[in-house]
Amino acid sequence: MAQFDVHRSPNRARTSTPYLLVIQRERYDSTPYRVTVPLILSSEFRHLDRHLNPAFTIEDKQVVMDPLNIVTLPVKVLGAPIDNLAKHAMAIVRAIDELIAQGK
User: Fold this and answer.
1) What is the rounded distance in angstroms from the CA atom of residue 7 to the CA atom of residue 97?
2) Does residue 13 have a pLDDT over 70?
3) Domains of the chain from N-terminus onward
């Protein structure tokens, strides 16, 4: 499992949140968990911030990254990756930085 891998969402909210993005770096692959960020359908997302919520296309679906809902899940529930967003690493890391940056 690589950083920025995209997995199908294993939960019931799959209709509005079809995918999860692994943001955890490979250094921590020995743990049984992965830190993920939901990728929500753009049509379902209401409060878009261009720095916090970068947009991507996965399987012809427009999705938005939602770092305010970061979740840690067991590796065994993620299944096989269906895509990788490493080419968007700068936007993804910027969104996480935006979330945790100091100040207002």
Assistant:
1) 22
2) no
3) 5-100 (2.30.30.110)
pLDDT tier, 12 (very low <50, low <70, confident <90, very high otherwise): low
User: Cα dihedral angle (53, 57, 60, 61), rounded to 10 degrees?
Assistant: -10
Return the H-helix or E-strand segment holding 5: strand 5-8
Does pLDDT of 103 surpass 90?
no
Mean pLDDT of 79-97: 96
Q: Residues near 59 by Cβ (< 8 Å), separated by ≥ 6?
A: 82, 83
H-helix or E-strand containing 93? Answer: helix 89-100
Q: Cα–Cα–Cα angle for 62, 84, 13, nearest 5°?
A: 50
CA distance 89 to 103: 24
Count of CB atoms within 10 A of residue 5's CB? 21
